[in-house]
Design goal:
One of its GO terms (molecular function) is pyridoxal phosphate binding. Keywords: Pyridoxal phosphate. Belongs to the class-I pyridoxal-phosphate-dependent aminotransferase family. The chain is α/β, with parallel strands linked by helices. Among the domains are: 59 residues, no CATH class; 250 residues, 3-Layer(aba) Sandwich (Aspartate Aminotransferase, domain 2). Helices cover 39% and strands 12% of the residues. The protein is built from 17 helices and 13 strands. Strands 2-8-7-6-5-3-4 form a seven-stranded mixed β-sheet, with helices on both faces. Strands 9-10-13-12 form a four-stranded antiparallel β-sheet. The protein has a two-stranded parallel ribbon with strand order 1-11. Helix 10 links the parallel strand 5 and strand 6. Helix 6 packs parallel to helix 13. The longest helix is centred in the last third of the chain and has 27 residues. It starts with 10 loop residues before the first helix and ends in a 7-residue tail after the last helix. Pyridoxal-5'-phosphate binds next to helix 7.
């Protein structure tokens, strides 16, 4: 991957970097459907006119955004675009869409007030929303120390919050360690503006990926960074894990805390799937979700822990099937400097919809329980669907997706072949995400979102000529 900190100094170097970037972005468009043609190459290559900043030109993440945008230009709709692309590559939860449309419609009709039409009453998010978020955390995740509105800064989704956080805590070139596989967006959100360096840490497979032993790989990654002269500033975990769909046991959270303390790192816990945990009889011992705010590190380990390093991020995109509302937050209970620095760059959003739901306890409870029931049903259906066709899908207990293993069925052993499979399905109208895009070390996997319509499975069945074998 091209790194921002290795900035080109001459036009020649810059052009060669741009060519490298441009070559990364070719082949992502959807040839069969003539989707969005990228203006990126033509715009920058040899262009003599007004130029963008080197930061923007060399930013390594444009190709990924373009790929996604290309797909979104031709999205499937049962009535208006039945031949469009079905998106199984992004974690969206359509299982509760009718309920939420009805609920949010009512909330908007009855809840709007004059503050909503102004700049609001707090720069870091309205009092109403921050109080509702604090209450939600206190009532659902049992924090050691009660969350108050003063601990919270809101923003337009986790994407923006992570971008702001990264800009606030990391200098260009600083390293942030993340256990692989991990959400592809971290490569974008943590890097694009701060110029930091995401280091994938390859942890063991299966349930060991979320075990305390996974921290051994972090020790090694830390040593390698130091040997390369790179400053390691942060460690990030996503709990529940994306793309593995697993929850972290308490001991592993403690091991993360001790690792962060040992090397004086920021500790970021992305808890965006906190309420999207469901049942899977194949994983009877999977822990329920535990928020990092529920961990009393000093009491539980008997060792010192500087609480100012801990930052939890959350958004309403996933647990409330509301990616489009763009509401997220950071909760940092002991770091006034960080909150102050992020206040300068924070956004304010109109929040009547979510605060109405969070304050309506019976509706909140009913919706989250029903969501859990439907996630259980949809994940079981999807996993069994693949397994009955001779294709394994990993067991999960959280999130809206699962890694599906096409290695045996299609004889895949390289990431090139994995990419070809991805392209083949895209040409057949199904957008998925490659395991490689999530730093999954075994070629031949796709991450499939199971919480959307099942027409997509028919397309996959037809394209790959799948047959029921059991
Ligand atoms: C782990 C994780 N963090 C953050 C995000 C971004 O979410 P948001 O819609 O709040 O920007 C996603 C979206 O898929 C995600 O999976």
């Amino acid at each position: 991957m091209v790194q921002l900190n290795s900035a080109a100094t001459s036009t020649e170097q810059l052009t060669s970097k741009i060519e490298e970037l441009a070559s990364n972005s070719t082949g992502h468009a959807h040839p069969a459907k003539q989707l969005y043609a990228s203006p990126w190459n033509d715009h920058v290559k040899g262009y003599p006119g007004v130029r963008l900043s080197d930061r923007a030109l060399l930013c390594p993440t444009h190709a990924q955004a373009e790929k996604l945008d290309s797909m979104m230009c031709s999205l499937y709709d049962v009535h208006s675009n039945p031949d469009g692309v079905i998106n199984l590559g992004v974690a969206e939860n359509g299982l509760m869409v009718d309920e939420y449309i009805q609920y949010f419609g009512e909330a908007l009709r009855h809840g709007l007030n004059p503050v909503d039409l102004g700049y609001g009453d707090r720069l870091s998010g309205s009092k109403r929303l921050k109080t509702a978020i604090a209450n939600m955390f206190n009532e659902n995740f049992q924090p050691v120390e009660r969350v108050t509105p003063e601990h919270i800064i809101t923003g337009t989704g986790c994407t923006t919050i992570l971008d702001q956080l990264s800009w606030t805590i990391l200098n260009a070139g600083d390293a942030i360690l993340i256990g692989a596989p991990f959400y592809a967006g971290f490569d974008v959100n943590m890097v694009s503006r701060s110029g930091s360096h995401v280091v994938p840490v390859y942890v063991p497979d299966g349930e060991k990926a979320v075990s305390p032993a996974s921290l051994d790989a972090f020790e090694e990654a830390y040593r390698v960074c130091v040997a390369e002269g790179r400053e390691v500033k942060a460690v990030l975990l996503c709990n529940p894990q994306n793309p593995l769909g697993l929850t972290y046991p308490r001991e592993t959270l403690l091991a993360y805390a001790q690792f962060a303390e040992k090397y004086n790192l920021h500790l970021i816990s992305d808890e965006i799937y906190a309420l999207s945990v469901y049942d899977n009889p194949n994983l009877p011992n999977a822990p329920e979700f535990i928020s990092f705010l529920n961990i009393d590190v000093e009491k539980e380990t008997g060792q010192k822990f500087d609480k100012s390093r801990l930052h939890v991020v959350y958004s309403f995109s996933k647990d409330f099937g509301a990616n489009g509302l763009r509401v997220g937050c950071i909760i940092s209970q002991h770091n006034q400097f960080l909150l102050r620095a992020m206040l300068h760059t924070c956004f304010l959003m109109k929040d009547v919809l979510l605060s109405t739901l969070l304050n309506d306890k019976p509706a909140f409870k009913a919706m989250t329980l029903e969501n859990r029931r439907r996630l259980t049903q949809a994940s079981t259906y999807c996993r069994e669907w693949f397994r009955s066709r001779g294709i394994d899908a990993l067991d999960t207990v959280a999130g809206h997706f699962m890694l599906v293993d096409f290695r045996k069925h299609l004889n895949i052993s390289t990431f090139d072949q994995e990419r070809q499979l991805w392209q083949r399905l895209l040409d057949a109208g199904v957008y998925t995400a490659t395991g490689g895009g999530y730093h999954w070390k075994h070629p031949g996997f796709l991450r499939i979102t199971f919480s959307v319509n099942q027409e997509s499975l028919k397309r996959i069945e037809k394209e790959l000529n799948l047959k029921v074998v059991s």
